[in-house]
Each structure stands twice: as C-alpha cells, then as structure tokens.
Amino acid sequence: MNASPAAAASLAPPAPSQAEIRQAMAGGQFVAYFQPVIDLSNGRISSLEALARWRHPAHGLLPPASFLPAMREHGLLRPLSELMLAQALHACRHWRDGGLPVRVSVNMPLQSLTRPNLNAWIVAQLRQAGLENGQLILEFSEFMLSQDWDLADRQLVWLRRASIGVAIDEFGIGLGVVSPLNRQRFSMIKIDPSIVFHASLDPHRRRWLSAALMQGKRAGMETVAIGIEETADLELVRALGCQAAQGFLFAPPMAEAEVELWINSRKTW
After folding, report:
1. Which residues are 171's β-sheet partners?
2. Which residues share a beta bridge with 186?
3. pLDDT tens for residues 65-122?
4. Domains of the chain, earliest start first
5. What phi and psi, each to the nearest 5 degrees, are found at residue 36?
6. What CA–CA distance (Å, rounded) separates 109 from 229?
7. 243, 226 in Cβ contact below 8 A?
C-alpha cells in the first residue's frame, strides 16, 4: 500500500543543516550517478549526465530533492557542481581509456557564472583529467539563465569559443532565454520532461514539443528530449526529428561502476 503524502513526509529525513552538508561533502558522501543520453540515429550513447546523490550514513542513498533546496538556501550549489564536475571528468577519462569515448554533462548553477575566467578554469580541469574540451557539456536551466542574462551572456560566449558544450536544460516551458538561440552561446537544447512525458497522448504537449524541436533545429542546436519513459513517446520524438533522448525507458541514473555493466547488457534502441 502506498503511504499518504503526510506519512511519506514523516518518513523523509529532516532538511540537512549547513554544517551537516559541509561535513558530508568533506567526507565524500556526495557522488555522481550517470544517466545515458541515447543518439536516436544509431542507438549509441551520445553522452552521460552526472546527477548528484547523497550516500547518507543513516538514511541511505538520497535523491536531489532531499538536499538541493537546503544547499540552495545555504549557497552550496556551486561547490556541489564543482564536485560533480571533478567526478564526471574522472569517470569520462576512465571510460575513454576503456574504449568508450563518450561525453559527460554536468549541471551548473547561476553562482558558477560569477567565477572570473570560468572558461579558463574549466579548461584547466579538463587538461588535468587528460580530456579534450569537446568531451564536456555544461548544462544551465532555462529558468536560471532568464534570472540574470547579463551575467550569463559573456561567460557562455567564452565557453563556446573554447569548444566546450553548453546546453539549455529544461528548455521550452515558456520562460524564455533573453537572447535568441545561437551557436555563439549554446550547442544543445534539452527539452523539459513536462513537455515530453505523454506527449504521444496529449495534442497540446505534442504541439509544444514540435515547436521546441523546430526552434532548436533552426538554430543548429543538438536536440535532446528528456523524461522518456514510454515507447510511444520515444517513437514520437524520433518521428519529429529529435536527435537524442534520455529517460528511464533507457536507464535510470547509475553509479560509475554500473555504467559499463549496463552497456554490455543493454538492448538497441
């Protein structure tokens, strides 16, 4: 029997304090799990997105919803993103050395754009990991970019000049990036799951999805549909010309060690 919302809330761990979060970060409790993005033209892995999880000593593996609000409140999203970046680059080098030359993507908060010479710092992290610039994609949510476009604009241009991938995450929900899509600032759009999920059953979502894909294709962006859970939605985004897809239909987020096992056992899409 499913628990009621009130009962579920009572079972959830309490919101972590700033001191608890900092201690967990210092103790290596925050780890990157990876969810594959599938190239719909050939069924191969296009990239792997790093998603934060907390291996809590008392509560087990915690999803982002249990700690991201507290981290946002305490101004800790930037150090978390930098930790995820380091783990993602390490994993990417490991996979490349093992014959899997995939890209990795990392979610970045608005605070990351306040770092002076962000592009030079990112390039230095890539060099330290022994990777090329094009093997990394940085994801920024459409809503976040709309909050401070003046801050984001110049940094995005420099990142793209360094051939680092830049994706607009949660794209198409009507918030709107201040600048029109162009390849000077972006290389990819990742269409929000609220548009993709059950679009095959909802004409309104299908029109919204089609419009978002058309906007991305006209701008020369890579297009990714996220939140694919049903075969019918996969068939729809493929028919609409979407280049790649991500979701539980393919795989859940996995620990680094599980990725190779999944690759060896997966079916072709």
Report:
1. 191
2. none
3. 999 999 999 999 999 999 999 999 999 999 999 999 999 999 999 999 988 889 999 9
4. 29-265 (3.20.20.450)
5. -75, 145
6. 26
7. no
